[in-house]
């Protein structure tokens, strides 16, 4: 996929996920709502727009349709591995919205496991190599696209 501007995986991801109905549909799937009517109700999306977004997410391999009724034919939507990998993105958007846009968080994620964890989730960005928590000032950018640097395209 060739996009205008800087070659970037963020830009490529936004081609699929950059419209609010797409991410809100993914949110609903994370919440366990798999049927179209529930996704429409909980997102507030126009039915035709949501249909188009779910179709695009399916074509991109983010969701898959699974039949739940033969007569009439009906399908549920489920996240694929690629879709489940969006969990940190949705959690980050939720945390950012809670911090900057909401006086009282309308949803609280909980860390609940078989090992009897059950507490509000306080997720952190952690480096898998060294195990340390990562803060934005600690991240360096290594531009690997020929003809580009941090400021933009380089002269020929």
Description:
The protein is an alpha+beta fold and 156 residues long. It contains six helices and six strands, in the order ααααββααββββ. It has helices spanning 9-17, 20-30, 36-43, 47-59, 81-84, 87-100; strands spanning 63-69, 74-79, 110-112, 118-120, 148-149, 152-153. The protein has a two-stranded antiparallel ribbon. Strands 3-4 form a two-stranded antiparallel ribbon. A two-stranded antiparallel ribbon has the order 5-6. The two termini are 23 Å apart. The model has no long low-confidence stretch (mean pLDDT 93).
Share of residues in strands: 5-15%
| CATH architecture descriptor name of the domain at 1-85 | Orthogonal Bundle
- Report the major sheet: 2 strands, antiparallel
Q: Overall pLDDT, averaged?
A: 93
C-alpha geometry? globular
CATH class membership of the domain at 1-85: Mainly Alpha
Question: What structural class do helix, strand and pairing data support?
Answer: alpha+beta
**CATH topology value of the domain at 1-85:** Arc Repressor Mutant, subunit A
Q: Over all CA atoms, what is the radius of gyration?
A: 19 Å
Question: Major sheet: order of its strands?
Answer: 1-2
Residue windows where pLDDT falls under 50 for at least 5 positions: none
Give the % helix. Answer: 25-40%
H/E element string? HHHHEEHHEEEE
Terminal CA distance reads: 23 Å
Assign the CATH superfamily of the domain at 1-85: Winged helix-like DNA-binding domain superfamily/Winged helix DNA-binding domain
Can you count the helices?
6
* Number of beta-strand segments: 6
């Amino acid at each position: 996929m060739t996009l205008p501007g800087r070659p970037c995986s963020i830009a490529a991801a936004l081609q699929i996920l950059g419209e609010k109905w797409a991410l809100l549909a993914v949110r609903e799937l994370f919440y366990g709502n798999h049927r179209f009517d529930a996704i429409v109700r909980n997102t507030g999306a126009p039915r035709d727009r949501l249909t188009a977004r779910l179709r695009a997410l399916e074509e991109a391999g983010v969701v898959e349709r699974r039949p739940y009724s033969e007569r009439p034919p009906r399908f549920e939507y489920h996240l694929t591995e690629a879709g489940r990998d969006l969990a940190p993105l949705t959690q980050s958007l939720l945390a950012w919205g809670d911090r900057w846009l909401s006086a009282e968080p309308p949803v609280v994620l909980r860390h609940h496991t078989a090992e009897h964890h059950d507490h509000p989730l306080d997720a952190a960005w952690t480096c898998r190599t060294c195990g340390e928590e990562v803060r934005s000032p600690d991240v360096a950018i290594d531009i690997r696209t020929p003809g580009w640097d941090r400021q933009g395209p380089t002269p020929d």
